[in-house]
Amino acid sequence: MSGVQMAKNKFLELLNREHQMALNKMKQLDTALTGFQFEGKSSVGRNLKQVHSVLQFCDGTLMKHMKLEEQIIFPFLASHVPKLDSVLRILCSQHEDFRKSLEDLRFFVNLYSSEASKSDSSRTIHKLRELGAYLIYLLRHHMQVENESVYQVIDRELRSGERKALEKRRREYVE
Ligand SMILES: [Fe+2]
Ligand SMILES: [Fe+2]
Q1: What does pTM read for this prediction?
Q2: What is the CA(65)–ligand 2 centre distance, in A?
Q3: How far is the CA of 91 from the centre of ligand 1 (A)?
Q4: Mean pLDDT of all residues belonging to the chain
Q5: What is the distance, to the nearest Å, from the Cα of residue 29 to the centroid of all Cα atoms in its chain?
Q6: Mean of pLDDT values over 86-91
Q7: Residue 142 alpha carbon to ligand 2 centre in Å
Q8: In terms of DSSP H, where are the helices of the chain?
Q9: Distance 146 CA to ligand 1 centre (A)
Q10: pLDDT for position 7
Q11: How far apart are CA 137 and CA 52, in angstroms?
Q12: CA of 45 relative to ligand 1 center, distance in Å
């Protein structure tokens, strides 16, 4: 178990739980996209439903999580812990990359839905698997870096008053 998972801070626990949910959703995405390639046509509907549930999670919980980081957590840390500046920039550009790749995935999911019953869709499936693998890799790597840098700093390096101030900003933001 990592230090972050053991964090006593409730607010970090929440962020960490969302990371865990996202990683589970990425597994679900991987299984469904593999199913497109290796399971018969009778499974297409079920696998599409799984992919849509992942997209819904990304549009909702995950986008809220990223916005909270971009608008509250990262700016707060940038002003209190200057050494994090470059990693925060990288994390923000990974958020952008994730959003863009998610839109690409959505495009090919819609294309696949429209052609699945008619034509040979092997090229679309190949593209979907490629995009899926990239998204999964990106998110895993991103969350690992956050856990090991940003979240650790919140847990171990911020003074208790700073942590409280950050928690207050988060509450005001989400409410
Ligand atoms: Fe993030
Ligand atoms: Fe995060």
Answers
A1: 0.90
A2: 6
A3: 6
A4: 91
A5: 12
A6: 97
A7: 8
A8: 10-38, 44-57, 63-68, 74-80, 85-115, 122-146, 152-156, 160-174
A9: 7
A10: 47
A11: 19
A12: 31
